[in-house]
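Supplementary notes for students who missed Thursday's class. We covered one full example, reproduced here. Read the sequence, then the structure, then the short commentary at the end.
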Amino acid sequence: MLIVSEKSKLQEINFHDAEVAKIICDYYNGTVEMPIIMDDIGPYRYNALLKFENVVHVEVNRRKPWGPGINIISLDIDSIEGDLLKVEIVLSSGDEINITASIMIYSTED
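Structure (token representation):
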């Protein structure tokens, strides 16, 4: 498990071409979970989870301006307003997922 609280930790993980399987938003608890399928070098694929805690903003569009696609093209993170992280995920469809939270946790089934 990797708890991301700064951008430098995120650079250790290659999210490019990972597939977004679901986006689960729990409004009551202020969490968002994204099960993803990581695409490592070669034929190796494995399940992982992105979890956001203390979420204050979630925005997901599904307009598919570039056509269908569920793979991550880029995942960027910026610190804003003190302890909050702004995470922007762009999919191969051109759609964006924007989440602002205080904690981002990356974990695998290993």
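Commentary. The longest strand covers residues 31-39. The beta strands are 2-4, 19-20, 24-26, 31-39, 45-53, 57-60, 72-80, 84-91, 96-101, 103-108. If anything here is unclear, bring it to office hours.
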